[in-house]
Amino acid sequence: MTKLLLLDIDGTLLNSKKELPASAKDAVQQARQNGHQLAIATGRAPFMIRNLLEELDIDTYITFNGQYIVQRNEAIHKEALDAETLSKIVEYAERRDHPVVFMNDQRMVSTIDYHPDIDESIKSLKFPHPKKVENFHLENDIYQALVFCEKEEEQQYHDAFPSIQFVRWHRVSCDILPKGRSKSTGIEQLIKKTGHSIEETIAFGDGLNDLQMMETAGFSVAMDNGHPKTKEKASYITDHVDDDGLAKAFHHLGLI
Fold first, then answer.
1. Residue 248 to residues 33, 35, 122, 126, 244, Cα–Cα distance (Å)
2. Which of 80, 100, 131, 230 could disulfide-link 141, Cβ–Cβ 3.0 to 4.6 Å?
3. Could you write out the DSSP letters of every residue in the chain?
4. How far apart are the first and last CA of the chain?
5. What is the dotted CATH code of the domain comprising 83-178?
6. Residue 180 predicted with pLDDT over 80
7. 8 is annotated as an active-site residue
8. According to the lineage, what is the superkingdom (predicted)?
């Protein structure tokens, strides 16, 4: 029986150096040859993953943690964040000297010219510090935003904005998402189009933003380098991403 394989990027497909291991690329290609369908499921924006999509010949992806979904190069679901709510978050964050970054499917911009927290976290994705653009969120559909603060400063945002999820992905940064939206809701949207059942899906991930996806999928695989909570939820734990963990999981599950 063929499966729908849902692949996180950072720490799952890409190793700790943000490189695609040859073993992972070979595994993806072999799985496709064996009839399995592959999809990316990531917190990243579409513009951030174009090169990887081309290299792996993947045309189906869940991005922005479920806010923007594409099947066979056609957008099948878009859900922008509320501009009024974003304005309130920006005002709240500015009073605390916390910068905000906005993303649509094409680009990423900042509310500030430069900030070391933005530089640190965005560089970890191999992207430069975004340029400052005034009122970008008022003139464009924003599918994801980031607020930059440390963990001990995060709870105030949960308290002040109960309709929003703040999901930490970096030491100094949190994703800003609508409450109730995640990669798992993206999966539900996608399988309606692919014809697969939940039981035929396998999710591969490592981070906190993969938790709900792994709970939703029929079977889930966590990387050994993953967050403890992610590994706790997984059906199976494979080796570290730097030790060919993804390819080993594919072999273990009989996908290749």
1. 17, 18, 30, 26, 6
2. 80
3. ---EEEE-TBTTTB-TTS---HHHHHHHHHHHHTT-EEEEE-SS-GGGSHHHHHHHT---EEEGGGTEEEETTEEEEE-PPPHHHHHHHHHHHHTTT--EEEE-SS-EEESSS--HHHHHHHHTTT-PPPPB-TTHHHHS--SEEEE---GGGTHHHHHH-TTEEEEEEETTEEEEEETT-SHHHHHHHHHHHH---GGGEEEEE-SGGGHHHHHHSSEEEE-TTS-HHHHHH-SEE---GGGTHHHHHHHHTT--
4. 13
5. 3.30.1240.10
6. no
7. yes
8. Bacteria
The 10s digit of each residue's pLDDT in 136-178 is 999 999 999 999 999 999 999 999 999 999 989 999 999 998 8
Residue type, 133: V
Q: Catalytic pick from 8, 175, 210, 244? A: 8
CATH 3.30.1240.10 in the chain is located at 83-178
